[in-house]
Amino acid sequence: MDYRQLGKSDLCVSSIGMGCVTFGREIDRDTSFQIMNHAFERGITLFDTAEAYAAGASETVLGEWIAGRNVRDDIVLATKVSGTLTKDRIITSVDRSLERLRTDRIDLFQLHNWDESTSLEETLEAMNSLVDQGKIRYIGCSNYMAWQLAAALVLSAQRGLARIQSIQPPYNLVQREIEADVLPLCADQETGVISYSPLSAGFLTGKYRRGQKAPPGTRFDVIPAHQPIYFTDQGYAMLDRLDRAAEQSGRSIVQLALAWVLKQRHVTSVLIGARNTSQVDQVFEAAEAGIDDELAQKLT
Known about the structure:
Elements: E1 3-5, E2 12-14, E3 16-19, H1 29-41, E4 46-48, H2 57-69, E5 76-81, H3 87-101, E6 106-111, H4 120-133, E7 136-142, H5 146-159, E8 164-168, H6 182-189, E9 192-195, H7 219-222, H8 227-230, H9 233-249, H10 253-263, E10 269-272, H11 277-289, H12 293-299
Parallel strand pairs: 3-4, 3-10, 4-5, 5-6, 6-7, 7-8, 8-9, 9-10
Antiparallel strand pairs: 1-2
Helix pairs in contact: 2-3, 3-4, 10-11
């Protein structure tokens, strides 16, 4: 496991992070605890959640695990505020998150979305006040476009406010839009990248095929909004390339897709989701096996 500096902060995060979106939503408390214990024992120190995940249930489960295991000082704790990002909303959100997480500080407090209805200045000033109070250590953002991140970085520099230290975008063999502008911007501005959805919300596992409906009970069936993103000619073409590469290399398409994301040098940490401990292990297996340049090129 590699550990890397996040942006210009003094946070050191594991190159594989634990995404907690499934906790309290798709899996119960005991299973969540098993997964977090296993992830922590394998060296994962970044645990990422959000108030929006299962209406706070994910934060509650994570907070119970942290308190029970007594690992608060051994992990990097990240969560997010969503919706309307006014000063009052942000302050209320952080206090509720702190309560659910059973802690007095959040290491990385992220803006979950861009809010067109609230001035960026008000949002960043509110976040800065939380840094001054010690409730949060650093600021991040999620799902921002490059121009939105750039605007925030410029404004914080002009006003002497705490800067955004990381961005959390989706990144996988199908969704590669960030390569055009977000990744170059982050490299230039020394901003960390915490990517998520390395398996395209499960699309790159091979369970969804061209011309077939999403199997009942799968994520693409339960959350059909995923379908327009991946059920495309581009998405199915990527599955075809993965199938060919898997046959030639003797490896699974899951391992190849994971290894490709883990190879990307501009990504600080890759968040993984899991419903069981074996799904944690498969990421480590992909990391250990790696992927050479020739094979990676065949996928792109």
